[in-house]
Amino acid sequence: MAFDDDYRREVLEPARAAGDQPPEDLRARYALPDPLTGPVVAARVKEVRQCWRRARGQLKYRKLIDRLEAEHRELAPLFAAAERGDLRPLDARLRGGRERTERRRTEARARLDDAAGTLKMATPAEVEGIARTGGVTRAELERVAAADGIEIREPDALPAAAPYPAYRKVQESLDVLGARHLADFVFGGRITGAIRLLDGFAAPGGTFRLDQDAVAAAAAEWARRSRDTSTTHADTILAALRSDAPLPELVLYDVVDRLRERLRQRASERALLRYATDDLGIDRRDARRMVFAVVRETGPGGGLAGRLRALLDAGEVFAAAELADAAGVPREAGGGPSEEEVLAAEARHRLDTALRLRETAAAEPDPDRAHRLLDDALRLVRDLPGAAAHRHRLAPRPVPAVRADVDAGAVRLSWEPSPSTAGEIEYQVVRQVGRAPRDVRDGAGITGVLDERPPVNEPVFYGVFAVRGDAAAAPAVAGPVTVRPEPGEVELLAGDGQVTGRWRCPAEAARVVVVRDGEVVPAGRDGFREPVPNGRTHHYRVAAVYLDPSGREVVTDGVRASVTPSAAPEPVFELAAGTDPSDPGLVTVRFDPPGSGTVELVLSEGPPPWPRSALVPLEEVRRETRRLACTPVPGGLAVRPGASGWLLAVSVAEGGAAIGAYHRHVNLPPPRRLIAERRGEHVHVGFDWPPDVAEVDLVYKVGREALQIADPPTSETVTRAAYDTQGGIRLPVPEDEPVELSVAAAGTVGGSRVTGTPVTAVVAARAIVRYDVLRSGPPWRRALTIRLTASRPLRVARLSLVLRTGRVMPHRAADGETLGAWEQVPVPGELSLAVPDASGPYWLRCFADDDVVELADPPVRRLQVT
Q: Which residues of the chain are under the pLDDT cut of 50?
């Protein structure tokens, strides 16, 4: 229903987005129109409540509809008073609803400002919660945030654990040397502006790059100093910078950890931001994002407990245990354990279990069982040191057997899978010539199960290795396999009393042998030619000959082909083509049959590209022309070209074609469903326009004399555009004159105009007879006289005079009383009868029952009697 759709879109959906909070404005809640009247309010409230009942069937609206119905019980007296005509309570409630809506928006804005704090940043989840509990939509709250300069974003992911295990020693050394952070130590205080760390290290001017070259330069500078306690601390820091820990992550963690330490000391957001920008020299944009992320870590479930929980949820149990040890969380809790102690205990327990599994796997002789033990350990502790590397070194059981089959110059492999079921097993195929491959790197690797280009005429071995992780099992070997390809692209050409063969000989083959019907045919490396009888099918086998390592010849099975030579086809020298008058689309082509070859008719869009009597390959004719389906008829072939072009006769014999005579065919189909009907002083001509025809020729004669004499008719050319614009053809023809016309498709071929088969129509003349009704004689014996006139003498088959009383004229002979009827009435002439004994008003009108006569009425005043 249209009302339900509009109400859901404009009221229910926004209210659901605002935490299932019904709109305070009753005008919006009940879709009340302006102006308010008692009946209108009652009808609309009823319609809205019906919409509520229908919408409650959807689960997403159920809670909202329940709240709407509950509040409606309190509002029912307002609507009852409005229905009685008293709108004052409802008007007062409408004014208060607008005030409550505005107050709710103000409160939501204040809560958003509180959540954003000094940093002017809030998370999407915070915005969603404020919108849901504050009764406003998220989109509305986002617009408020944009207007107040509050940025809505997710907190940046900050490193939870130190990427370097001995980071605490590094931090102590930095403090001793007076360096603000690791970047300050590397560049020796040469950076004068603020640095950026979150999206990669960047310093003012772009000349400072945080990489191992910068670390090497700092190490060289400290190496030039004399040895003392400061150089010892510098060595501690340099050891961390040269470790496998990524430099950007190490520097970022150093800064973030200092911010977390200040936050644990109860520093405010403003103090943290000032510390990051002024003391640590961090760019203000990065500082805002860092403080925002660090503060959000310390929300419910944040701080050390939050970081421990995040590491445990991510499976990084080893990092969680290390973090607990670094933070000094005791192993034995005194009194009631804190959340940090509970999480640390869980991490240490899972780590101890995983370590025992790892030790058991190290002593397990069965690689599959060891693999499963390590899987269990890594499921408990995803970052367990050494477990993943050990698992990757466990080789699966080897493939039981492999088979290699030669398939058309390629080798197809098949094998049984490895019995191992632990882990993901992959298979690598290696090819080696002369011996079996020893490992996955001993030979050429093969992708898939098909070796498309194996070495030819050499013993080849294939090894299939089952691989799991970085370890491979012993190979399953197939071979030796010797591939000896057959001659390729074998082609036999039949001529007049001869056969020519050609092929592509493999480079490794010694020669090619050809056998015909059990007899060896002399042949070269690339082909042969021999005389054979015509009209007989000959069977050939073309095989390659190879030399084995001992020098003996090995003959392949060979490629078999058959061919039937015949005499060269003779062309069709002359042909005659004509259309069937009863079927213009059918063309009959007559010719004398040639001495050899089968005649086919083909259609070419342009003039044939070959000279007459030329002998060309049949495939070339097929490529350049379109073969037509022909029906044999006495003396030739019948064909339906279906399009304009050149009809070409070709004589075909064994892949060759002799080019014969051709005929230029113009496809001019006749118009279909011709209609010619008289419309007043014109004759309308309509028909189905022939496809692919641009214009038609219209030929017509008008008048009896023109139809009887041999004078040339009138002709005109009608284009498709003119026909479509006028909706047909209009010919000016007097109503009392016949017309005979014909329409034929037309076109221009070779500079001369040609027309297709015409279709004709005849429109008979229509005779107009005018009559008048006169009253004459003395009053005591008045008479009616009907006077008939026409442009030429004629007779009306039947004429009747009808009387109808009242003020409505008769339109048919059955509409009144027939006063008189006459057969074969001559025109011109007069008819008389007595005046009817009828009181006025009444009508008198004549009707003619004749196919070629049309009566023309006199003025109305002559037909009506008052």
A: 299-301
Phi-psi region of 270 (alpha: psi -120 to 50; beta: other; left: phi over 0): alpha
CATH 2.60.40.10 domain locations along the chain:
488-563, 672-763
> Which residues, in sequence order, are bridge partners of residue 827?
794
CB-count burial class (<10 Å; 0-12, 13-18, 19+) for 365 = exposed
3-state DSSP assignment of residue 645: strand
- Buried-exposed string 327-349: b where 16+ CB fall within 10 A, e elsewhere: eebeeeeeeeeeebbebbbbbbe
Query: Which residues have C-beta within 8 Å of that of residue 232, sequence separation ≥ 6?
Result: none
Q: For residue 322, what are its two tokens?
A: 């290390």
Residue 401 neighbours by CB under 8 Å, 6+ apart? 415, 416, 476
What class has domain 767-865? mainly beta
Measure the CA–CA gap between 469 and 428, rounded to whole angstroms: 12
CATH fold for the domain made of 672-763: Immunoglobulin-like (2.60.40)
Alpha-carbon distance of 406 to 457, in angstroms, equals 12
pLDDT, residue 229, reads 84
Residue 168: name the closest of 240, 247, 69, 87 by CA: 240
Does the predicted model carry a pTM greater than 0.90? no
pLDDT at site 542:
94
CATH code at 488-563? 2.60.40.10
Question: Quick one: which of 458, 517, 466 has its CA closest to 485?
Answer: 458
Dmax (CA) of the chain: 162
